[in-house]
Amino acid sequence: MKILCLMLALLALPAQARTVVDSAGRSVEIPDEVDTVFAAGPPAAILLYIVKPEAMTGWPRALRPDEREFIAEPYRDLPETGRLTGRGGEANLERVLQIQPDLILDFGSVRDTYVDLANRVQDQTGIPYLLIDGRFENTPEALRVVGEALGVPERGEALAEDVEATFARIERILETVPEGERPRTYLARGPDGLETGMKGSINTEIIERAGGRNVADDGGATRGLVQVSMEQMITANPDTIVTWDPNFYGKVFDDPLWQGIDAVQSGRVYLSPSLPFGWIDRPPSLNRIMGLIWMTGLLYPDDWEGNLREDTREFYRQYYHVDLSDDQLGRLLQWTEGRSGE
C-alpha cells in the first residue's frame, strides 16, 4: 500500500510547472497554481495563514480554545497535521501523501540539516518542498518569495512593504540612541523567570531589534536559551523585564528575591500577549512583527508616535484576517503596560 501511494504521488505531478529558487538555493519545480500547502512546522503555518490562508491543509497543532477567536472563522477548525520539522515532529510521509498537497512549505533555518530533510521528503513523496529563510531581517524577502510561489504576489508585496516600513521607523529612532544609552532589558521565560535568551538568540531577536540592550550577554560565547541564577540577575540589574509567562508576572512584584531589581522597583515588568501566537518568540514567525511594534513603543514611547490599541487592531486585521472587538483588544493588552501603567 505504501509503495502504491508513493507511485500515485509521483504520477500525480502537474503538467504545468514553474521553477522557484528557495532560500537554500534549491531550484524547485512547483505547480503553476498552488491551491493546497502542507506547513512543515508552526512558523511555516503562521506564514501560510498570513499570506494565503485558503491554501492551508491544517495546523501542525490544532488551535486551542483561547486561540481560536483570534483566527478567522473559516480556518479555526482545520485539522491537526503534525509537523515535519523541529522537536516532537509527528507528521510522517504517509500523512503527507494522504493529504496530497500541491506544495510543502518550511520557514526557519536553512542549515544543511533542513536542506537534507527537504530534499529527502521531496524525493520520497514527489511533492515540491520550499525552504524559506526565517531570519527576522529576511522577513520582507520571505513574504515576496512565498507570495509569488502561492500565486498572490500582490499580497506578498503589500505585507513586505509594511514590514520594511516598520523596520525603517525603528532604524530612524535607534540612529539617535547610542548603544550604551538603550534600555537594559531582560527576557524572563518560565514560571521562575530564570530562563532567558542570550544576546543574538532567536528568542531575544525582537527585543534587540527594538533597541533593547539584552543584559544576558557574554560577548557571544553562548547562544540560545540558558538558565541564570538569581545572583546573576542581581548583578545584571535590568531596568526593563519582558515575559510571556503569566505565572511569573503574577508573582514577581511580591517576590522578595526580585525586589532589588530596578525593573521591579519601577514597575517596568511587562507581560507580552500570546494569542493567537506569541508576540516575542513562540513560535519565531511573522507574529513577532506585532511584538516588535509593541517593544519599540514600550522602550521608546516618546519617539514611536504610535497607539498600541490602533496598531494592534490594524495588525490583526491585516495579518490575521480578524477584526478585533473592544473586548478582545482589552483582554489582549490588559497587562502590556506593566505596574507603572495601572
Characterise the protein shown here.
With 342 residues, this protein is an alpha/beta fold. It has helices spanning 2-11, 42-51, 65-68, 93-99, 112-125, 139-149, 153-174, 205-209, 230-236, 246-252, 262-265, 288-299, 301-304, 308-320, 326-332, and strands spanning 17-21, 27-31, 37-39, 103-108, 129-133, 184-188, 195-197, 213-214, 225-227, 240-243, 269-271. The protein starts with a helix and ends in a 10-residue tail after the last helix. Residues 1-15 have low confidence and may be disordered.
Write the layout of secondary structure elements.
Layout: H1 2-11, E1 17-21, E2 27-31, E3 37-39, H2 42-51, H3 65-68, H4 93-99, E4 103-108, H5 112-125, E5 129-133, H6 139-149, H7 153-174, E6 184-188, E7 195-197, H8 205-209, E8 213-214, E9 225-227, H9 230-236, E10 240-243, H10 246-252, H11 262-265, E11 269-271, H12 288-299, H13 301-304, H14 308-320, H15 326-332
Parallel strand pairs: 3-4, 4-5, 6-8, 6-10, 10-11
Antiparallel strand pairs: 1-2, 7-9
Helix pairs in contact: 6-7, 12-14
